[in-house]
Amino acid sequence: MHPRVSEVLAGFAAPLGLIAEASAGDLARLEALVGPIPEPWAEFLRGAGASTGNLRLRGQHTDLGLSLAEDVLPVLEKKRKKEAAKGLKLAPVAASRFMIAMPRGTCQDCGPVWLELEGGLLPAAIRKGLEEAGSHEAAVVQVDEGGPRGKRSPAPAFVLGESLAAWLFDAAFRQFRLAAAGPPQRRSVRPEHAAAPRSLLESLGRAAIAEGFRRHELSRFVLTSHFTRNDAAAVFAWNGNAVEVVFAARTPALASRLGVALARPH
Q1: How much is the pTM?
Q2: 3-class secondary-structure state, position 244
Q3: Segment 225-251, tens digit of pLDDT
Q4: Buried b / exposed e across 10-37, counting CB within 10 Å, b at 16+?
Q5: DSSP readout, 79-94?
Q6: pLDDT of 17-31, one tens digit each?
């Protein structure tokens, strides 16, 4: 269902500018620390592991660094040194999540971003929606380190993307396509009590098509849909409770009309 990470990077090659792959040495250092690398992350590192060019990524409250050498390896190596000092076994072990990024900013509670390999950190409503759609990609989540501790009260996990490709695509679309159409505006559409999020997303998609939009060819996700037309762009994103409708248009009059049309399911 999902496009590959390489497809996303190629689809935005021009606005991304200079992206740089991770070095063989950096990849070897990573594997020495954590063992085998999940394929979506390995694919990203082969294409943009040293630099994402002009692409800006965000977590829950802060910017994120995705340079393997500058942002990820130093943190992992520091963690391993602490483990060694405590006499802990350092052999890489299989994990249910894989760290891919560290936040940059002043938020004291924002923890690392992870590829969630088994789904245990996903909120129930989001996990159910992905399971019903048959999606088995590793989601991208950020854990709030300021949340409660312990197995009974796990720290909140914020889903940034239902897959690595989905997160990268959504960030690129919003930065390079949506923002170029005008100032982004937001609406929130809540489903009926028994309505599935997929049904609501599909209904809002029909509303967009009725307004002359077409779905972007790389937008093949369960939780988000991305639409374009020559003078506007729109994103529909399910957050577990409601669908966030984000749209932008070239003129205020058009934006006003689309604000009504795109927030009304068909």
Answers
A1: 0.91
A2: strand
A3: 999 999 999 999 998 889 999 999 999
A4: ebbeeebeebebbeeebbebbeeebeeb
A5: HHHHHHHTT---S---
A6: 999 999 999 999 999
